[in-house]
Design a protein that fits this description.
heterotrimer, A mainly alpha, B mainly alpha, C alpha+beta, A: mainly alpha, Amino acid/polyamine transporter I, C: 3 domains, 5-stranded antiparallel β-sheet, 11% strand
Chain lengths: 364, 74, 517
């Protein structure tokens, strides 16, 4: 066992949890109501080539993360710009997710408490985890993954008696443009956010195939998303699902086993939180790694704390209210597109050229 | 109340870090550390005093609206 | 002329005194002299005011007798051996054979099985205080250490805090030699290595490191030796003195060094590639590396039917979470998430709580502390008073407090559940007390959210811990059976094919085993 390396399953589960992160709370795109499973499938299809590209970038430069790669490919100045962009995306995403969770916790459990203490507790936990390093994150993911999957399965099974299968119909109510928009949204939030993991690629083991890693993770995510979607839809119906900010939470409120185990939503919310901690930690880790390499520093751990504080500050001023948070979801795909698709595509292209040139040089 | 919480948080965190991690840190790290901490501290304090700071999201949404007109389609 | 002689004599005497004054400390470099009188004078100076030390001058028979000098401590030596096997032969026989005198003495006169030669005062002090008899001979700058040790040793009994229903019942005693013999009797192989070292500047305690040569992880062994050599302390009275100095995370409440009082447990750990550290004068042996799961493993698991063992192990793991989280859960439910309770239960709790003046969180903290007080008093209480104590605890706190509406009845049930489940994992008691209070605090101010955060912090902390470079909590995420055979379940013995990977260099435990099971 090498130092600072994480095993295949650890990475895979942390990718899965990263994708659950805030999307399970916010609900997978609900704008097309009962037909949302179609955009979920479409977005997964769209994510496959993207994930393969991420995998290719990692295999091209094994045991290097994106910050080293851009440095090799683009040289000092352009490389630094790329690193700065990526770092900003990571820290911004960190703040966005943190805000999702503080809003969620405030609305669902503690309407009178201000959000700041909630944020402080969450960010301190993630700072602790990020400082502990990638291995701790990996081990955490293993344990939490089983817990999260268990809860999802449990709620799915217990929701069956109350499910109204009629809610799945009618099919074909929405237009192609609506589907396209919904697909785009699911693609960018959460699937393509996995681009953040390129910042941790240096900790993957060399002989673990990244393609397998990403695709297996994608398969698990797809299954869970569909389970969650069908559970929410059949319990709430399309109208209610659209009307609620946090459909999964409301669903858990309805689920119950006879009279005894009812209203389990508050336990479910802690389940969301576990996944959310993974997502925030990954963002924070990558952001501090990025910042460290931006200034050419060796030790990134010490930067975790100030960056965490910065994420919290950013998180406080991001939105004025919950409405704004959900309104931003519409803009998010456009904003994230350059980071999620264009930057990796660019790195991939340049990387292929670089490798080819290197091969030629070797042949000569 | 919130201001007090923020003050307390920063105080404990900085004292803790000065006793442990920051002791052997390089000079460059210390400088970046201080700058980021200062920025976040100012933002948080201003926010807790109800002085509104423009959100970076406004810039983003405006730019995207200008390019793709998301609002109109909504 | 006379004056000159007097001066000479006086000069000689002051010389000796000065020499003695100079050599007081440190004694390490100082060697014996050839003159018996000088040695005797130095020794008497060294053991000044140590009245239990016995000195004895003896002369051999025959003409121009050889003078011997014996030194030992009354009570720690076997006086029969000293009298019959040392003093008597020395007085009645002359050594046969020539030079060197000391060798021929040991070979022909003294009748003691174990002896060695020393030439420093430091070694002399160590041997004499340990129960050996030291023999000086006129004209020799060496002395013989004769093994005449005799201690009062407690007889082997079952350790009180590690009782078993079935399986071997012998436990360690305070004698290192006896403890080692108990281990050796179970492993008749030269692979079992026992390295001894002396720790503690003043107590000079013997510490023995045991391991099986072909199984041990060499990195761990090296690290252990390095840490043991770094220990600088004046006295070691119990193995915990060592535990806290070789700990990976001295500030963590969790122990990353195992301890046991049973030889069978030590041997089981040695067979998995671990290393045991035995300390003289204490019945508690240490084992490293220590994994978190070992807190839930009990030696009886392996002596009973595996279904039963697996079940009780899962109970223990559950008990850990319950004793940790029950107070926090209760407070979170009562103060924040009443909706989770069925209506009737909620009504009952509300009814009970309606007359209680304190907020639930304060009530819980007080009750938990009261429970810990009862537990702490019970531990060191003579057993006949213990009964009175339990009556006071049960009746006064349990019944009277509820009747007087000082405490709600559900709170008593909660505290009782916490206390009983904590007995399932006695090894984790110390960390649990702290984390339980932290969780309670977080839950009382943030409900389930706080509880989740608290559990997360705990889990991150556990994941960070290491024991001699090995992860304390191993979560590789492997689905292979061999990796998970001894975690939540205890697999039957034919299936225990591999040793834990990170502990041992030799993984296969049964060559081709398990296929016929």
């Amino acid at each position: 066992m090498k130092k600072g390396k994480v095993t295949f399953n650890q990475v895979m589960f942390s990718i899965v949890l990263f994708n659950f992160g805030s999307s399970v709370v916010m609900g997978v795109s609900t704008s097309v109501g009962q037909e949302a499973w179609i955009p979920i499938l479409l977005a997964t299809l769209a994510a496959i080539p993207m994930f393969l590209i991420y995998g290719r970038i990692i295999t091209m430069f094994p045991e290097k993360d994106i910050f080293d790669i851009t440095d090799i490919l683009f040289g000092k100045i352009c490389g630094k710009i790329c690193i700065a962009l990526f770092t900003w995306y990571a820290i911004h995403l960190c703040a966005l997710v943190l805000r999702n969770f503080s809003e969620f916790t405030q609305i669902s459990a503690m309407p009178e408490t201000p959000q700041l203490p909630i944020m402080i507790l969450m960010i301190l936990t993630t700072i602790y985890m990020a400082r502990s390093g990638v291995r701790t994150l990996g081990k955490w993911s293993i344990a939490v993954f089983f817990f999260v999957v268990f809860v999802v399965l449990f709620t799915f099974v217990t929701s069956i008696p109350q499910a109204k299968v009629d809610d799945l119909l009618p099919i074909g109510e929405h237009t192609g443009a609506q589907f396209a928009e919904s697909t785009f949204q699911i693609f960018s939030f959460p699937y393509a956010e996995t681009v953040i993991f390129l910042g941790l690629a240096g900790s993957f083991k060399k002989n673990d195939s990244p393609y397998k890693l990403f695709l297996y993770a994608l398969a698990i995510i797809l299954v869970v998303f569909l389970l969650v979607f069908f559970r929410n839809l059949t319990l709430l119906g399309p109208t209610m699902m659209r009307a609620n900010y946090f459909p999964s939470y409301v669903t858990a409120r309805i689920i119950g086993i006879s009279d005894f185990l009812a209203r389990i939503e508050s336990t479910i919310s802690s389940n969301f939180l576990f996944a959310g901690i993974v997502k925030i930690t990954v963002c924070l880790l990558v952001a501090s790694k990025g910042l460290a390499s931006l200034f050419g520093l060796k030790d990134y751990r010490i930067l975790v704390l100030p960056l965490g504080m910065f994420a919290m500050a950013l998180c406080c001023i991001l939105y004025k209210n919950t409405m704004e948070m959900f309104a931003f979801l519409k803009y998010y795909p456009y904003y994230a597109f350059p980071f999620q698709v264009i930057l990796p595509l660019f790195i991939w292209g340049c990387g292929e050229l670089y490798l080819r040139r290197q091969k030629q040089e070797r042949n000569i | 109340m919130l201001t007090a919480i923020i003050l307390f948080l920063f105080l404990t965190v900085i004292i803790y870090d000065y006793k442990t991690a920051l002791k052997q840190a390089e000079k460059g790290i210390k400088r970046i550390y201080t700058v980021i901490m200062l920025i976040s501290f100012i933002i948080l304090i201003l926010d807790s005093l109800q002085i509104s700071i423009p959100s970076p999201n406004i810039l983003i949404t405006k730019a995207i609206d200008a390019l793709f007109n998301v609002q109109g389609r909504g | 002329m006379l004056r000159f002689l007097k001066k000479l004599c006086a000069g000689k005497a002051t010389d000796l005194d000065e020499k003695i004054a100079r050599l007081n400390y440190p004694l390490e470099e100082h060697k014996f002299s050839r003159s018996l009188d000088e040695n005797v004078a130095v020794i008497k100076k060294l053991f000044n005011n140590v009245d239990i030390v016995q000195y004895k001058m003896i002369q051999s028979p025959g003409k121009d007798p050889i003078r011997y000098f014996l030194i030992f401590i009354d009570g720690v030596v076997h006086s029969e051996i000293v009298n019959n096997n040392i003093v008597e032969p020395l007085m009645t026989k002359r050594p046969e054979g020539g030079e060197p005198l000391l060798e021929s003495l040991l070979a022909t006169v003294v009748q003691v099985g174990e002896s060695k030669k020393i030439n420093t005062f430091k070694a002399l002090i160590e041997s004499v205080t340990h129960g050996d008899t030291v023999l000086f001979v006129e004209g020799c700058d060496q002395a013989a250490v004769l093994n005449t040790k005799q201690f009062a040793v407690r007889s082997i009994a079952e350790p009180d805090n590690e009782k078993v229903l079935s399986g071997p019942r012998d436990g360690f005693t305070e004698s290192l030699i006896q403890n080692l013999s108990q281990i050796l009797r179970r492993a008749r192989t030269n692979e079992l290595k026992t390295k001894t070292m002396t720790l503690g500047k003043r107590t000079q305690t013997t510490v023995c490191i045991c391991y099986l040569d072909s199984l041990v992880n060499k990195d761990v062994l090296e690290e252990l030796l390095r840490r043991l050599n770094k220990i600088d302390i004046d006295g070691i009275l119990d193995s915990n003195y060592i535990t806290e100095q070789i700990h990976d995370f001295p500030n963590s409440p969790f122990r990353t060094v195992g301890s046991t009082e049973r030889p069978d447990v030590v041997l089981a750990k040695l067979l998995e590639g671990r290393i045991a550290v035995l300390v003289d004068n204490t019945p508690v042996a240490l084992t490293v590396p220590y994994l978190f799961i070992e807190n839930f493993q009990v030696n009886e698991d392996y002596y009973f039917n595996f279904y039963y063992s697996s079940f009780s192990r899962m109970l223990r793991i559950m008990g850990f979470f319950l004793t940790l989280a029950v107070p926090g859960l209760y407070i979170a439910v009562v103060a924040f998430h009443q909706e989770i309770l069925p209506l009737q239960l909620l009504m009952r709790i509300a009814l009970e709580r309606q007359n209680v003046p304190l907020p639930a969180a304060v009530e819980a903290v007080i009750m938990l502390i009261v429970f810990d007080i009862l537990r702490e008093t019970g531990v060191r209480m003579p057993s006949n008073i213990g009964q009175a104590l339990s009556i006071v605890g049960a009746l006064v706190i349990g019944q009277a407090a509820v009747e007087a509406s000082l405490v709600a009845a559900p709170m008593i049930i909660m505290v009782a559940a916490t206390g009983i489940t904590s007995l399932l994992v006695p090894k984790l008691n110390a960390p649990i007390i702290f984390w339980r209070l932290l969780l309670l605090l977080l839950a009382s101010s943030f409900g389930f959210f706080g509880l989740t955060i608290g559990l997360s912090l705990l889990f991150i902390h556990l994941n960070n811990l290491k024991s001699f470079g090995v992860d304390h909590l191993s979560l590789e995420g492997s689905f292979s059976f061999q990796k998970n055979k001894d975690i939540f379940i205890r697999s039957p013995w034919p299936d225990m094919i591999e040793r834990p990977e990170e502990l041992s260099e030799n993984e296969v435990r049964q060559q081709g085993g398990g296929n016929n099971g």
